Amino acid sequence: MIAAFWVLAAIVVASAVWTVSASKPVYSVVALLLNFAALAVLYLTLSAEFLAVIQVIVYSGAILVLFVFVIALLSSGVAPLRLGPNRVPKIWVPGGIVVAAAFAFVAFAITHAPRATPPATGAVGAAGVFGSIADFGKALFTVQLLPFEVTALILMVAVIGVITLGGEQMREGPPRDERRVDREMREAILREGEG
């Protein structure tokens, strides 16, 4: 059981790294699908069948399809996005400080956290058992309500941003050369009609 956990943990971490470092957005979606599948299997090893099914249905089914549509919407424009100044060098230092602070906070929280009592074991689906529907619902709407709502807000902001970017590309219209060719074609057709 421990060996399965370590193999699945390695797959989850590797697929997460692949998701953020892939060269093409479609590869990122494939890596994210692998990440979701590995998490679902990890839930199964913890006897949390309900969470595994929800992981597959909600994330692999709904959220991943949303990402595919967002990628399709961004890729539909023919005009490239306007290039701005390279902001990456300015982001490295604050980003590194934030990541180091997050790691320090996690290390502090782990070392100073009280020992948790193991979850109750029993029949799958029974109330109060780890992974049961009642346990999941109680945690989701009490302790985990803020992260749940923040995730929904982040997804909504991402969709609005993609629609804004896609709308900007569509609003520009055809490039100037195409407009000139269209105008010359109309003028040539009008001249032929007069002659």
Task: Considering the chains and any ligands shown, give keywords for the structure.
195 residues, 76% helix, mainly alpha
**Beta strand %:** under 5%
CATH architectural group of the domain at 1-79: Up-down Bundle
Largest sheet: none
- How many helix segments? 7
Q: How far apart are the first and last residues' alpha carbons, in Å? A: 87 Å
Alpha-beta content class: mainly alpha
The succession of helices and strands, N to C, reads HHHHHHH
Shape, please?
elongated
Query: Helix coverage percent of residues?
Result: over 70%
- Poorly predicted regions: none
Average pLDDT figure: 77
CATH classification, class level of the domain at 1-79 = Mainly Alpha
Write down how many β-strands occur, each being a DSSP E stretch of 2 or more residues: 0
Tell me the radius of gyration: 25 Å
At CATH level 3, the topology of the domain at 1-79 is Four Helix Bundle (Hemerythrin (Met), subunit A)
Give the full name of the CATH homologous superfamily of the domain at 1-79.
NADH-ubiquinone/plastoquinone oxidoreductase chain 6, subunit NuoJ
